[in-house]
Each structure stands twice: as structure tokens, then as C-alpha cells.
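Here is one chain, start to finish.
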Amino acid sequence: MDVLDQLLAGTRAQDGVFNLTILDLPWSVEIRDEAPLALATLVRGSGWLARDGLEPLRLEQGDVAIITGPAPYVVSDRLGTAPQLRIHPGGICEPLPGAPVDYSARLGVRTYGSRKSGAVMIASGTYQIGGDVSRRLLTALPPVLVVPAAEIAGSVMEMIVDEIQRDAPGQQSVLDRWLDLALITTLRAWFARPDSHAPGWYQAQTDPIAGAALRLLHEDPAYPWSVSELADRVGVSRASLARRFTAVVGEAPMSYLTGWRITLAADQLRATRDTVETIARRVGYANAFALSVAFKRVRGITPTEHRRVA
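Its structure:
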């Protein structure tokens, strides 16, 4: 089981919101979509991505930015250029004071700006994410990251442009799958970078000891694992496994397993009406009481309380 695959499986676009913005110099767009996860790229042109409290990042043509959290951000030709358009939740585009009158024009399906041949073209898409498995991925990412076009396999976001402007049966599903592909290829490229500070669970996947143990835990989290059996399956001593796993992943094998089981249980408590007893056995606990004790220790609330506030 590829750990990234498993985390991405819970991070799928559904009813994603897309915008294609085409502008002339000087240009600036303020994006207030309030999405927990968004992607943006300059299909044409170059500029800057700025967010309060963070160092601005340069965007060259074809680079892909991933933005986490609901805080607004600005994409512009130069730092300090006043925004001419504001993107609200749901893809609603608002022309701002001082913008050319024709910036209020809608150029086509999901497309706004001045004219189709404008100097810059910005494509963006947003995810609405729920669930603890998805949040486990989000917490591994910085608030903003940019991956150069040369490091991404194929011009995925550029290919989305034609689809954004199309209005055909099933178009939302097509766009959602394109957005998934863009996210996966960008994240894979980002985690492969030496300066990405990739989380331990990602780095472990190429380690012959920690990676093998991690895959076993993800393939069957409900199995009554012990460090001894895990070490036997991997083919190393108990001490070697514990030492290597902790060094690469950042926590001991059984601690990691507990956290993963609680994450799976938390999602099932929200997504199903199954009893706590059923969920407990499904994720590796003997009964509801055992899950409740572990859940309370890790999350500070009981499974029932978690379900109630979900």
C-alpha cells in the first residue's frame, strides 16, 4: 500500500470550483475562495504569489502553486499592484474599484477578464476537503508551495484550460479528475525536492526497512501488530526495526499505528452510522471500550463526542 496513494484517496476533487482569468498589464487578482486546498498556475505570463505573513513566491509560466488554508492570497505582475478582480467562494468574480470597465465581462464558461488574448492567463481550482485522512496530508504541506514547470511531468494545468472553458455533459466530473491529476503530479514533484522537508511517512517509502514496515501497517491496520512480528515480516531484528522506523518516520512503529488507527476511526465516525464497537474492530481494537480509551488519550474526547461535534 502506497501511503501517499492512501492519503490522496481521501483527497479527491468533488464539485471543484474552477476559474480562468485573463488580464493585461498591470494585473493583479485577489483570491478569497476560502478553500482548504487550491491550485493555481500561470498558463501565460509570469508574476508573484503573495500572502500575508509569508515571503512572496515567484511564479513563472507553467509553475504550479498549491495553497493550503482559507486565508486569501494575491497573484500579480508585481508586488504591490492593486487587485483588479477578486475571486469569492463558488468562483464568483468581482471587479474592484479602479479596474478597467471591461474586466467585468465574462469571456466564456468559468472565464473572466479583459480579452481572450490578454497578456496573462491564470488557471485555478479549489478542493473542499473533509476527513482526518485528508487533513493528515494537508498538515504535511506548507501554506504555499510552488513547483517549477520543468519538475512536473507534462503540462497538466495547461491541459485543464480547454476543459475549463468547455460546457458539455459530465464536464464537472472531467474537471474534478483533471484537478486530481494536477494535485498528484505536483505533490509528487514537491515531495521529491530536497528542500521540501517531506514528512517522515513519505521519506520512509523508499527505505527498505521503515518503508516495508509502513506498508504492512497501512495494508492491514486492524491486524494485532507487535514490533516483534513486524520485524519478523520485514526480516530484521526488533531493535533494528524500532531504531530505523523511529529515525525515518519520526515516531515509534506502535505509536504511528495508533495514530493511523485513530485517524481511520475518526473518519468512519463522521462518514458512517456504524456503532463504535463495529468501527473499533475494523481499525484494530478489541472492543468499543479499548477504542474509546485510545481515542480519548490521542484526541482528548471520546468517539461519541467526536461524532456528535462532526
